[in-house]
Amino acid sequence: MKFVRILAALLGTIAAAGAAQGANPVVIMETSMGTIKIELFEDKAPVTVKNFLGYVDDKHYDGVIFHRVIPTFMIQGGGMDADMNEKKTKAPIKNEAGNGLSNKRGTIAMARTSDPDSATAQFFINVKDNDMLDRNDSSAGYAVFGRVVDGMDVVDKIKQVATGSKKGHRDVPTETVTIKSVRRAKAE
After folding, report:
1. What would the pLDDT profile of 102-123 be if each residue is shown by its tens digit?
2. What is the dihedral of CA 113, 115, 119, 123, to 10 degrees?
3. Domain span including residue 110
4. Distances (CA, A) of 148 to 138, 160, 175
5. CATH number, domain containing residue 40
6. How far apart are the C-alpha atoms of 26 and 14, rounded to whole Å?
7. pTM (2 decimals)?
8. 8 Å CB contact between 35 and 151
């Protein structure tokens, strides 16, 4: 019986410590096709989450579009306006793809160039499991930093839009899909 009381006290201490650390940040992404709620994994990708939330707080994402949509792969946004002009960004960040998170359906990861440490504001949401984007012996990988917790139906609607070419870019939705805003969720 003493063991049970000790175990209960220990579990209570662990739960209290977890509550003291706080829950992961959550953002609400309002798009022209609906709302997407995203949990951010600050403990696994602190640099990436801080960077993303900086863009959120600066309202950088207001009015940008999902400019690249591949229905069997991902939807990408965060950096272009409806005329395919790239918005000014902050300095690139360190790639945190070695954080143990995998590019599974519903996760959000940073887009980058061939330079592993080149991510700025653009991100993508995986519409299927894309394990080939994870860090491995031959690839620096793409850093997962969150997951959709509500609104995958919206992501699935976006992935179905017709696409074409525009200003030298492929896989651009022919009907603009706008990110109206991204805001931190209010604490519940």
Report:
1. 999 999 999 999 999 999 999 9
2. 40
3. 23-184
4. 28, 18, 23
5. 2.40.100.10
6. 23
7. 0.88
8. yes
